[in-house]
Protein backbone atom coordinates (compact mmCIF):
# COMPACT_ATOMS: atom_id res chain seq x y z
CA UNK A 1 0.00 0.00 0.00
CA UNK A 2 1.03 3.61 -0.55
CA UNK A 3 -0.38 6.94 0.63
CA UNK A 4 -2.31 7.02 -2.65
CA UNK A 5 -4.57 4.22 -1.37
CA UNK A 6 -6.17 6.51 1.24
CA UNK A 7 -8.89 9.14 1.25
CA UNK A 8 -9.40 12.11 3.58
CA UNK A 9 -12.03 14.78 3.97
CA UNK A 10 -11.02 18.37 3.15
CA UNK A 11 -11.83 21.32 5.42
CA UNK A 12 -14.72 21.97 3.03
CA UNK A 13 -16.11 18.50 3.80
CA UNK A 14 -15.29 16.88 0.45
CA UNK A 15 -13.91 13.35 0.32
CA UNK A 16 -10.53 13.57 -1.44
CA UNK A 17 -8.64 10.53 -2.75
CA UNK A 18 -4.94 10.99 -2.08
CA UNK A 19 -4.36 9.38 -5.47
CA UNK A 20 -5.13 12.90 -6.77
CA UNK A 21 -1.57 13.71 -5.62
CA UNK A 22 0.06 10.84 -7.53
CA UNK A 23 3.48 11.63 -9.05
CA UNK A 24 4.06 14.47 -6.59
CA UNK A 25 6.38 14.76 -3.62
CA UNK A 26 4.26 15.19 -0.48
CA UNK A 27 4.92 16.60 2.96
CA UNK A 28 2.13 15.43 5.27
CA UNK A 29 1.89 17.34 8.56
CA UNK A 30 -0.37 17.13 11.59
CA UNK A 31 -1.07 20.73 12.58
CA UNK A 32 -2.64 22.83 15.35
CA UNK A 33 -3.61 26.49 15.61
CA UNK A 34 -2.87 27.06 19.28
CA UNK A 35 0.54 25.42 19.67
CA UNK A 36 3.96 26.90 20.31
CA UNK A 37 4.97 25.39 16.96
CA UNK A 38 2.07 27.00 15.04
CA UNK A 39 4.41 29.60 13.45
CA UNK A 40 5.76 26.69 11.37
CA UNK A 41 2.75 27.33 9.13
CA UNK A 42 4.75 30.27 7.74
CA UNK A 43 7.72 28.06 6.83
CA UNK A 44 5.44 25.39 5.38
CA UNK A 45 3.76 27.99 3.18
CA UNK A 46 7.19 29.21 2.03
CA UNK A 47 8.16 25.65 1.03
CA UNK A 48 4.85 25.26 -0.75
CA UNK A 49 5.32 28.46 -2.74
CA UNK A 50 8.91 27.58 -3.60
CA UNK A 51 8.29 24.04 -4.85
CA UNK A 52 4.60 23.71 -5.70
CA UNK A 53 5.19 24.24 -9.42
CA UNK A 54 7.71 21.36 -9.33
CA UNK A 55 5.10 18.73 -8.35
CA UNK A 56 5.26 19.28 -4.59
CA UNK A 57 2.29 19.38 -2.21
CA UNK A 58 1.89 19.91 1.50
CA UNK A 59 -1.11 18.24 3.11
CA UNK A 60 -2.12 19.65 6.48
CA UNK A 61 -4.12 17.58 8.95
CA UNK A 62 -5.28 19.54 12.01
CA UNK A 63 -5.48 17.46 15.18
CA UNK A 64 -6.85 18.26 18.63
CA UNK A 65 -5.11 15.29 20.28
CA UNK A 66 -2.22 17.20 21.83
CA UNK A 67 -3.25 19.42 24.76
CA UNK A 68 -6.46 20.38 22.87
CA UNK A 69 -4.53 22.87 20.74
CA UNK A 70 -6.93 22.67 17.78
CA UNK A 71 -10.33 23.36 19.37
CA UNK A 72 -12.04 25.07 16.41
CA UNK A 73 -14.20 23.73 13.63
CA UNK A 74 -13.26 23.53 9.96
CA UNK A 75 -14.26 27.11 9.08
CA UNK A 76 -12.37 28.52 12.05
CA UNK A 77 -9.25 26.48 11.21
CA UNK A 78 -9.35 27.54 7.56
CA UNK A 79 -9.80 31.22 8.43
CA UNK A 80 -7.02 31.12 11.04
CA UNK A 81 -4.55 29.51 8.61
CA UNK A 82 -5.33 31.90 5.75
CA UNK A 83 -5.52 35.12 7.76
CA UNK A 84 -2.50 34.53 9.99
CA UNK A 85 -0.16 32.57 7.69
CA UNK A 86 -1.52 32.85 4.15
CA UNK A 87 -1.86 29.07 3.95
CA UNK A 88 -2.85 28.00 0.45
CA UNK A 89 -1.81 24.34 0.58
CA UNK A 90 -4.53 21.70 1.05
CA UNK A 91 -5.90 21.36 4.57
CA UNK A 92 -8.08 18.51 5.74
CA UNK A 93 -10.69 18.06 8.46
CA UNK A 94 -9.60 17.68 12.05
CA UNK A 95 -8.10 14.20 12.26
CA UNK A 96 -7.03 11.73 14.91
CA UNK A 97 -3.38 10.96 14.21
CA UNK A 98 -2.74 8.53 17.08
CA UNK A 99 -4.58 5.97 19.14
CA UNK A 100 -7.33 3.51 18.32
CA UNK A 101 -9.24 6.02 16.18
CA UNK A 102 -6.23 7.24 14.22
CA UNK A 103 -6.95 7.89 10.56
CA UNK A 104 -5.72 4.92 8.46
CA UNK A 105 -3.32 7.27 6.61
CA UNK A 106 -1.54 8.10 9.87
CA UNK A 107 -1.42 4.45 10.87
CA UNK A 108 0.31 3.82 7.53
CA UNK A 109 2.70 6.78 7.91
CA UNK A 110 3.80 5.82 11.41
CA UNK A 111 4.20 2.16 10.43
CA UNK A 112 6.43 3.06 7.48
CA UNK A 113 8.41 5.78 9.28
CA UNK A 114 8.61 5.11 13.00
CA UNK A 115 9.96 7.77 15.32
CA UNK A 116 12.86 7.73 17.73
CA UNK A 117 13.65 4.29 19.14
CA UNK A 118 11.11 2.73 16.80
CA UNK A 119 8.11 4.42 18.41
CA UNK A 120 5.14 4.51 16.08
CA UNK A 121 3.10 7.05 18.04
CA UNK A 122 3.05 10.67 16.98
CA UNK A 123 4.20 12.60 20.03
CA UNK A 124 3.12 16.17 19.20
CA UNK A 125 1.79 18.65 16.66
CA UNK A 126 3.79 19.35 13.49
CA UNK A 127 5.23 15.87 13.04
CA UNK A 128 6.04 15.73 9.33
CA UNK A 129 6.26 12.87 6.83
CA UNK A 130 8.02 13.18 3.48
CA UNK A 131 6.59 11.00 0.69
CA UNK A 132 8.17 10.38 -2.72
CA UNK A 133 6.44 10.52 -6.12
CA UNK A 134 5.62 6.80 -5.89
CA UNK A 135 3.71 7.30 -2.62
CA UNK A 136 6.41 5.75 -0.42
CA UNK A 137 7.07 7.26 3.00
CA UNK A 138 10.70 8.35 2.91
CA UNK A 139 11.32 10.15 6.19
CA UNK A 140 9.70 11.34 9.40
CA UNK A 141 10.64 14.66 11.00
CA UNK A 142 10.22 15.64 14.64
CA UNK A 143 7.82 18.44 15.53
CA UNK A 144 10.76 20.75 16.31
CA UNK A 145 12.29 20.26 12.85
CA UNK A 146 11.49 23.50 11.07
CA UNK A 147 10.35 23.42 7.44
CA UNK A 148 13.57 25.05 6.17
CA UNK A 149 15.54 22.04 7.50
CA UNK A 150 13.54 19.76 5.17
CA UNK A 151 14.22 21.74 2.00
CA UNK A 152 17.28 19.77 0.86
CA UNK A 153 15.43 16.46 1.21
CA UNK A 154 12.56 17.86 -0.87
CA UNK A 155 14.98 19.04 -3.57
CA UNK A 156 16.52 15.56 -3.79
CA UNK A 157 13.13 13.91 -4.27
CA UNK A 158 12.20 16.48 -6.89
CA UNK A 159 15.47 15.78 -8.71
CA UNK A 160 16.66 19.32 -8.00
CA UNK A 161 19.84 19.20 -5.96
CA UNK A 162 20.98 22.70 -6.89
CA UNK A 163 20.13 25.65 -4.69
CA UNK A 164 17.61 28.22 -5.87
UniProtKB/TrEMBL annotation:
<comment type="similarity">
    <text>Belongs to the glutathione peroxidase family.</text>
</comment>
<dbReference type="InterPro" id="IPR029759">
    <property type="entry name" value="GPX_AS"/>
</dbReference>
<keyword id="KW-0575">Peroxidase</keyword>
<dbReference type="InterPro" id="IPR029760">
    <property type="entry name" value="GPX_CS"/>
</dbReference>
<dbReference type="InterPro" id="IPR036249">
    <property type="entry name" value="Thioredoxin-like_sf"/>
</dbReference>
<dbReference type="Pfam" id="PF00255">
    <property type="entry name" value="GSHPx"/>
</dbReference>
<dbReference type="InterPro" id="IPR000889">
    <property type="entry name" value="Glutathione_peroxidase"/>
</dbReference>
<keyword id="KW-0560">Oxidoreductase</keyword>
<feature type="domain" description="Thioredoxin">
    <location>
        <begin position="1"/>
        <end position="159"/>
    </location>
</feature>
<dbReference type="InterPro" id="IPR013766">
    <property type="entry name" value="Thioredoxin_domain"/>
</dbReference>
<dbReference type="GO" id="GO:0004601">
    <property type="term" value="F:peroxidase activity"/>
</dbReference>
<protein>
    <recommendedName>
        <fullName>Glutathione peroxidase</fullName>
    </recommendedName>
</protein>
Amino acid sequence: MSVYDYHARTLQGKEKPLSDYQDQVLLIVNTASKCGLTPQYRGLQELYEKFHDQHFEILGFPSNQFAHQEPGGSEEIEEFCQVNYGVSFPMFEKTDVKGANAHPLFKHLTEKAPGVLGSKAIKWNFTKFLVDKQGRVIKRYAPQTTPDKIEEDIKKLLGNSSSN
